[in-house]
Amino acid sequence: MSTRPQRLVILGSTGSVGTSTLDVVARHPGRFEVAGLSSNQRVDLLLEQCRRFQPRVVVLPTEERAAAVRAAVAELGLATEVRVGAQALCEMAAAEDVDSVMAAIVGAAGLPPCLAAARAGKRLLLANKEALVVGGALFMRAVAEGGATLLPIDSEHSAIFQCLPEDRSAWARRIDHIVLTASGGPFRTRDPETLHTVTPAQAVAHPNWVMGQKISVDSATMMNKALEVIEARWLFDLAPEQIKVVIHPQSIIHSMVVCRDGSVLAQLGTPDMKVPIAYGLSFPERIESGAPRLDFMSMRELSFEPPDARRFPGLQLATAALRGPLGSTAVLNAANEVAVAAFLAGTIGFTAIHSVNANTLEGLEPRLGADHRLDDLLELDRRARAFAQQLMKELR
Ligand code: NDP
Ligand code: MG
Prior knowledge:
3 domains; 4-stranded mixed β-sheet; 11 strands; binds NADPH dihydro-nicotinamide-adenine-dinucleotide phosphate
């Protein structure tokens, strides 16, 4: 094994997963080299990361933000190159001397650099579930053709991955089905009749996990679990009926594999993303993550309940999208991204998120050919966003 540091790019380094990744990296001096970082709005935090980790390159979405970072980087005497735009993001993710890419951008915006990393055969640590929900077969084909190693970071998928043998060719023979656990979010016991009055601040206050705003709202609607069902379909090559969801409010069991012989394998831990992140970074080894340990003696109970379809209608949309025409999962994702953004901006109510998602999925025909490419998916994403925006205008 080579002893040189693993050269790592973090897409979305200023987010919740991005900062936790740098936290794990900082615990292992000499093991990782931060080769590249990217951010969107949090320029000050990116600069702080530049000072501490001295990446060779950083990417920002606009020339204005890049200019500010360039000036500050020069003042600090750093050699960091500051680049701009989606193409630069793809080039950073696919650069020849990069070993690993942590995909921690939120939303479909992360799909192009994920595909670039996959095609370049990188070790791809995937937190950005929307990229796989949109990319689907094209994404998995890029992984296979590029010879990339796809490592799930989403805690449920990391749990399933940790319960399976390293030899992927054995998975299909072993798995009867998988059980994704869900916390149920902040509204698990709230009267569904009152959900229309939920505010953004209430929706992002997750009981167990500290996460970015979009995924926090997704957890409150359980659209997060719908996206995760679709993500699991691709990561583990399963049929929709092989993916079950159970509510487990304590978030201690992160998911389970039910084997063909009835044996159930589970992965447990405190709800801290540093565990799946550390596993992705060190696979197949294990390194210190910095997460607090489970204390079995102080654990009162592990409980389970079925998801209530009236409270969480969004969960059903995963199966509808997986069984729908090709491209339906991309349509669902696009609708949900614009609906969640509108909810966070205060322009639609909490329960309207589901109406927008369901009606976009129902009303927009994806018309995606089996031989589609990235541009076709991006065009479909644009069409679905426009359709959902129009629906929201009508709702107001
Ligand atoms: P955050 O919102 O905290 O961070 C998102 C990151 O992406 C930030 O660095 C942000 O930049 C950047 N970003 C946002 N929009 C764009 C864009 N259009 N182009 C380029 N960069 C962009 O999200 P999380 O860290 O919570 O989540 C990241 C991904 O990981 C999501 O797909 C989420 O579903 C998934 N995930 C997250 C978990 C968690 O615990 N947080 C758990 C499991 C999965 P900036 O901050 O500078 O604006
Ligand atoms: Mg998850």
